[in-house]
Write a structure and sequence with these properties.
GO terms for molecular function: guanyl-nucleotide exchange factor activity. The protein is α+β, with helices and mostly antiparallel strands and about 130 residues long. The protein has one domain (about 10-134): Roll (PH-domain like). The protein has helices at about 5-10, 15-20, 25-35, 40-45, 130-134; strands at about 50-55, 65-70, 75-80, 90, 95-100, 110-115, 120-125.
Length: about 130
């Protein structure tokens, strides 16, 4: 929820990045969002880790940014490339709903999904049907 457009472009030192992302532990996010995670959910999450390129839409533009994304431990981690050691930003997903964009969202692209938690909305686009379904 703390992630923003500026976070994607920030040039924090690697030490700053590490400490920033430690604050996004599952326990911290559960407390902040007033939710919980069952042991079953946690077990399933550990078995379902994904990585690959996604395009992320900027809020007030038509542009899309290509990022290497790692999904693990209920969180998306964003990297410029798959070779980066530290993420540019992270997005804890507990409490987020996943859906397809509606007409009012004004997105006319294939393979787009929407992540929303309260007023925080993110759009991501996969480069293929296979990636989108994953």
């Amino acid at each position: 929820e703390q992630e923003s457009e500026d976070d994607i472009h920030s040039s924090r030192s690697s030490l700053d990045r590490q400490s920033h992302h430690r604050a996004n532990t599952t326990m911290h996010v559960c407390w902040y969002r007033n939710t919980s995670v069952s042991m079953t959910d946690h077990s399933v999450a550990v078995e379902n880790q994904l990585s690959g390129y996604l395009l992320r839409k900027f809020k007030n533009s038509n542009g899309w940014q290509k990022l290497w994304v790692v999904f693990t431990n209920f969180c998306l981690f964003f990297y410029k490339t798959h070779q980066d050691d530290y993420p540019l930003a992270s997005l804890p997903l507990l409490g987020y709903a996943v859906s397809c964009p509606v007409e009012a969202d004004g997105i006319q692209k294939d393979y787009v999904f929407k992540l929303q938690f309260k007023s925080h909305v993110y759009f991501f686009r996969a480069e293929s049907k296979y990636t989108f379904e994953r």
